[in-house]
Amino acid sequence: KMIRKSKATDGTAAGQVGIKKKSKVPGVMITQFIETLPEGKSHPDFTRKPIALTIQEGKFAFFKAIVIGDPTPTVTWSRNNGDVSDTSRYQSKYDSPSNEHTFEMPNVAPDQADTYKCFATNEYGQAMVTVVLNVIEVGFKKNKAQKQAADAIEGDFKTVLKRKSKVHPKSEQPEKKEGEMDPKFWELLLSADKKDYERICAEFGVTDYRWMLKKLNEMKKEREEEQAQFVKSLSNLRPIQVNADGTASFEIDMDLIEQSSSIFLYKDGEMIPYTKELGDKLKHSLKKIGKKYIFSMRDLMPEDAGLYQLDVEDVNMFSTDFKIPMVDFLVKIQEVKAKEREDAIFECVLSNPFAKILWFGKNMPLEQGDKYDIEVSEDKLIHRLLVKDCMVADKGIYCACAGIKSCSAWLVIEADKDAQKGKKTARKTTRAGGSGQDLQKIAKEQQAKLEKEKEERKEQMKASEEAAPPPAAPTDTPVVAGSAASKPRKSAELQVKMNIDSDGTWFKDGKQLNSGAGITITKDGNSHELRIKSCSDDSSGIYQFTSGEHSTQGKVTVGDVPEFDPDDLHKFSKPVIVRAGQNAAFKMPFPPQESLEVNWFKDGTELKDGGGVKIVRERNHSRLLFRDCLRIDTGEIKIQLKNPFGAIEATSKLIVLDRPGPPEGPVKTVETTSSIIEIKWNPPKDDGGSAVTNYIIERQQTGQSLWTKLGDVSADKTSFRDRNVTHGKKYNYRIYAENPEGISDALETAESIMAGIMILAGPPGAPKVVSASKTCINLTWTPPEDDKGVPIIGYQVEKQKKDTNQWIPLNAVNEPIEDIKYAVKDITEGSEYEFRVTAINESGSGDPSPPSAMVCAKNPNMRPCFKDPEDFIVVRAGNSARIKICFEAEPPPQITWLKDDEKISAWINIINTEGTSQLVIPNSKRSDSAIYTIKAKNSVGEASFDIDLRVTDEPKVPGPVELEQTVHGKLVISWAPSPDQELDDRLYYMVSQHDSLNRVWKTIADRLFTNTYTASNILPGTEYHFRIYAKNDMGLSDPSPSPTWGTNINKVPVTSNGIISTEVSFERPPSILVPLKVHTPPKGYQLFMTCAVRGYPAPTVSWYLNDICINSDNNYYITNSFGVCSLYILRVRPKDSGEYKVVAVNSFGKAECSAKIFVRGKLYLRLLLYFCSL
């Protein structure tokens, strides 16, 4: 795992040790100052560490931490880049109740984004943890960030094309100096496991391991610092290897700091294009699954071998060497049919020795273990896979991979038919499978063949060494390497004309020249000429002609026209095909030359560096990159090399694949009938680089929002017949073109197309008024007598006010009324209206009907009637009593209220509104209970209704309870009546029973209108208690308890007849077995506490809060199960604070215990328990 290292000073003082310890909390670093801690003392540690935070600027940011240690640690905070001494921006706080240390940053700013550290220190050690704060900038700063990112891309893009790795392409590798290490050696070591160091060193001939490790550690440190700029961590580096499906891949877990960082792949120093998925167009792909990056390569060939590197921006993250051995299968694995619980074996023979091949089963790699045995012969030619104890689940395809060669075969498992159901059969000792050939013989022959080839190579090398000529003696004549002599050379002529006839001498670079060795010097009168028959590189120089005191000179430069390597030219001429949005790259190598000008062209127009085009010119090659290609980037790409001696060009083609353009319009209507609509269109102008495969047609009925796919037509057809249409309906159509890259935008019809011609319906019958009121007029009508053969889909209703001439539609044509009736609510009370109706079909609205009779918007006369009144109402004494009655009547009625058929008193309020009458008694008393009658009367008739109003209160406690047993097993319970019995004729009683067997109160009688009750099933030796409750419409009274009935009643003393005996008595005063305590820690607003008491007779247990009994308070749920007393508070409130006391009492004494509860605010609940018992 890669971490970014930072410089830190050791926190230990002189004389202290620095023992690094691991915390149980991940991410916490602990330094212990002394070797042995004193008993009871501890170094600091975090039980809760700060959590990384991403927050918008201007918000309140804070970190929280909880630390432990003895003595109590001192907590301090710091940041990597800056100080935290400004109290207006940084505040450290400590909350003693929660033991939380808080670091607050009010109104956080972007410059406060940093890595913060929290230190907890005492005399025995120090604990430290880091936490990251990210601040999101808002407003215009976002544009600023985008601009900075764009500038960064613009400035650094050349580094994308200029390889910064020390590994260069073969064409760019500089001349290797003696003793210099291959950069590939270090790149492999930086990404390799330690177990592979020895193999890599042996491969590159390195024997000084100490020197290698020292230098490698230095390079690793530098590389980690570079990587830390872009990634948080690196792990699980898996070297490249061949998979069962014939692909090769390597994996790396990488956590990027910026997810937008660019990722590049290189092979032997050359950038290779890749796609996000393994498609048909590109050979390489890079997929991301979470933090895992998987590089894959398909269609493996021998030339795919090389050093593969993954870079983020310009920093290398991983390097792996892909070696493809020259090996093939002489004998491939064969299909194996095995029985269940039998062993199966696959065998193969290779053409060259191979230490280990890869085995796969059902696309999963197989390793040596309990299930599989992998065997290799001594000559490493024969390889075997043994599948032990075959089961039906082992059925599938098995594969052997050697380099880039592979072979596969089926393993078929036959189920054991003789096996008993549910039982496993015994394992068989036989083996199935094998190649069916003598592998030892084949391997022996191949080994002999390899040895023979080895000897032949040795003989050839020996013969070539003997035939080599001895080294030539050194001479002063320069030796010219290369094949320049085979190329045709041009001649050059230098001419000088004098004004008089005179002799002269020719010089080259200060040396006198004479005729000979390809140079001819002639003189013709005043003209002097120097002719070079065949120019070469040696012919270049300064030529001078001297005659007496006069001289003249000129420079001759010999060079070649630029040229391309035929293999590079052939490779460049292949078209580059990419999908839209991908990058396209062109590269052209060429021999280095002086004064060489390189230009790139697209469709004859010269390309410049900028925008989405990047051009990089190097000494021996040039690169062209198109970023985020668009379809319009398709065209001819040309590179031109030009020098003073001529120019040469190479042409390629860029093809950007994209979805096609929309079909060409407009959409033409070829035919429209009552059952068919035929449309026609033109092919798209741009097919997206791939031929259009088909067209997709969709249809929408006018007035609806749903588009329905009708089908596809082949690319050679540009017309469609829609046979599923309805006469008179209008339709819209959309046409899409499709190619292998996707679907185009739609071509849509400009106007709706009707099936057939327009046919309008005849007029409906004149509307009739069914009923009328001041808010609604109900109409009905008859359909048209003639619908012209086209179905009617609805109607439109129009209204016209009296003394006006404007018809106002009540519904839109596209929202027809489907029924032949309609309720008109858009009317004004007292106004007169007439109405007419129009029938609507698919062609539109037809002729209107004759108008209806004039009608007035008012209510008809109506006898008063009451709407859902209540006939019985109960009100608590002291509250206001309200009786609300709704009624209907026309004209409005006269309302009268009576109490017990008499006129109501003046202090009772009557409130009448439209359709409602309400009787209100402000402060009701029991004497207000009565039968209230409401009467409504108008010119049509009258109506009345009686309401029984009861004003009452919760009943008072019944009188003393008496118990009497007249018959065995039955007990007569009698009690004095409640004081409210005479005032409330609806009052009744309820009896509850509690015995020493169940210890739970249960209701044994309810709705008793008498003052006695006979309880049955009364058992001797059992203690009974009874409670009498009074109940009415308002609720339940407090109970009236009975005397105890049970064990000691009517006890007859027993005489000892003079014999002295010791009596055993179980009677004892109450005692606290388990003091009051919280059963579970409180969560949120819930609390549960228990205690245990004992005593005989069983004590009566009471609960008190602040010395107030809460046994009958409904806010507390109290139970007593065989002396285990529990109290449950479902929702703790501030008023629940106080001292809770449990008191147990019987005839021999009393015992109690208590606990205090403090409720703080809404979020904190703290319990302080203390116990006392008597």
Note down, in words, how this protein is organized.
This protein has 1174 residues and is mainly β. It folds into 10 domains: 42-136, Immunoglobulins (Immunoglobulin-like, Sandwich), CATH 2.60.40.10; 184-231, no CATH class; 237-322, Immunoglobulin-like (Sandwich), CATH 2.60.40; 329-414, Immunoglobulins (Immunoglobulin-like, Sandwich), CATH 2.60.40; 481-558, Sandwich (Immunoglobulin-like), CATH 2.60.40; 573-655, Immunoglobulins (Immunoglobulin-like), CATH 2.60.40.10; 663-755, Immunoglobulins (Immunoglobulin-like); 768-857, Immunoglobulin-like, CATH 2.60.40; and more. 8% of the residues lie in helices and 44% in strands. The chain has 6 helices and 86 strands. The longest helix has 29 residues, at 439-467. The radius of gyration is 52 Å and the shape is extended.
Q: Main sheet? A: 6 strands, mixed
- The rough form would be described as extended
CATH architecture of the largest domain: Sandwich
Tell me the quaternary state: single chain
CATH topology of the largest domain: Immunoglobulin-like
Structure annotation, total helices: 6
Please give the number of β-strands. Answer: 86
**Uncertain stretches:** 1-15, 140-164, 468-487, 1050-1056, 1162-1174
The total domain count is: 10
Beta-strand content estimate: 35-45%
CATH superfamily placement of the largest domain: Immunoglobulins
How large is the radius of gyration? Answer: 52 Å
Helix content, binned percent: under 10%
What is the highest CATH level, the class of the largest domain?
Mainly Beta
- Overall pLDDT score: 82
Keywords: Coiled coil, Immunoglobulin domain, Repeat
Coiled coil: 209-236
Pfam family, one: I-set
Organism: Maylandia zebra
